[in-house]
Amino acid sequence: MKVTLRKSILDPQGKATQQALGSLGFSEISGIRIGKLLELDIDAPDEQSARASAERAFDRLLANPVMDDFEVISITEMATAVVAG
């Protein structure tokens, strides 16, 4: 699961990182936003059930619905992204 602050929420950690990179000479890097990657091992009969379980967990505890957006990414989707990347 990928969790990021909503675009409308200020990201002080991202801003501090951007300023630090700028002071190191990386002026071409801007708009940094810091997020989290959470890996869940879910015992489910199929991917659809596992995805539903993960979404419920994030809705109820793992993400703040007021501040955070989250995206469920399966191992298959991650592997495909890495190969395509």
Features:
alpha+beta, single chain, flat, 13% strand, 3-stranded antiparallel beta sheet, 85 residues
| Overall spatial form | flat
Helix content: 40-55%
| Secondary structure tally: strands | 3
Q: What characterizes the major β-sheet?
A: 3 strands, antiparallel
Instruction: Quickly count the helices.
Output: 3
Cα radius of gyration in angstroms? 16 Å
Strand order of the largest sheet: 2-1-3
Helices and strands, in order, run as: EHEHEH
Q: Which structural class matches the secondary elements?
A: alpha+beta
How far is the first residue's CA from the last residue's CA? Answer: 19 Å
Low-confidence stretches: none
Round the mean pLDDT to the nearest integer and report it.
88
User: What fraction of the residues are assigned to beta strands by DSSP?
Assistant: 5-15%
Structural commentary:
The protein has a domain at 2-9 and 35-84. The protein has helices at residues 12-23, 47-62, 75-84; strands spanning 2-5, 35-37, 68-71. The protein has three helices and three strands; from the N terminus they run E-H-E-H-E-H. With 85 residues, the protein is of the alpha+beta class. Helices cover 45% and strands 13% of the residues. Strands 2-1-3 form a three-stranded antiparallel sheet, with no helix packed on it.
